[in-house]
Amino acid sequence: MLEMTPQERLALSVTALLLAAGIGARVVSDASLQASAPTLIEAAGSGAPLGAAQQRMAEEQIRTRPLAEGEQLDPNTATVIELQRLPRVGPALAGRIVSHREANGPFRSLADLDAVAGVGPAMIATLAPLVKLPPAPPRDHVPSQRSPPATGGRSIGSGLVDVNSATAQELEALPGIGPAIARRIVDWRQQNGRFRTAAELEKVPGIGPRLRERLEPLVKLGP
After folding, report:
1. 195 lies in some domain
2. What pTM did the predictor assign?
3. pLDDT tens sequence across 159-169
4. Any residues with CB less than 8 A from the CB of 57 and at least 6 apart, and which?
């Protein structure tokens, strides 16, 4: 057996201590990172100030966290980052969902989501069990969320809404029409006269071909 000098034994002991210290530091560091993950997510959600790198890390943790079994998101309160937890919803679409609700008021049903560019029937079917919204009403049904008007000229017995005489409040009963778009319909009508065809609804800011197609079987063009 080789014998070591006192100096060699001392050097070996120091090396062993340094190795042990390094391993211990790595274990503590890994544990700290794991423990910090929930804290970063909580801080990001609460609006607490974070450094740029920490903010990006927290947002990425939120974005990539899968929905738990039975968990649902409320598209009327979820942030752009939170909406990206939904399947097929990327940053651009999440941003459009938030912009639409800010401009037109809250989504009242799944049908209202169809007014957002990039959301179609297939996506609505995918999102239905994952979001907190009532199901889309049948296409031939106008949800009655307001009391019927006292006069008979605003909303007809058939359930159709006359876009040439309905008030902004009555127009909001139509799917995809929030307070802002309803007000724009009334303003357009006052400035340009009655709508002569359903296609003219697309001249109202916020109404595109898809929303116009959804509205067409639900509205009437009165005199």
Report:
1. yes
2. 0.48
3. 789 999 999 88
4. 40
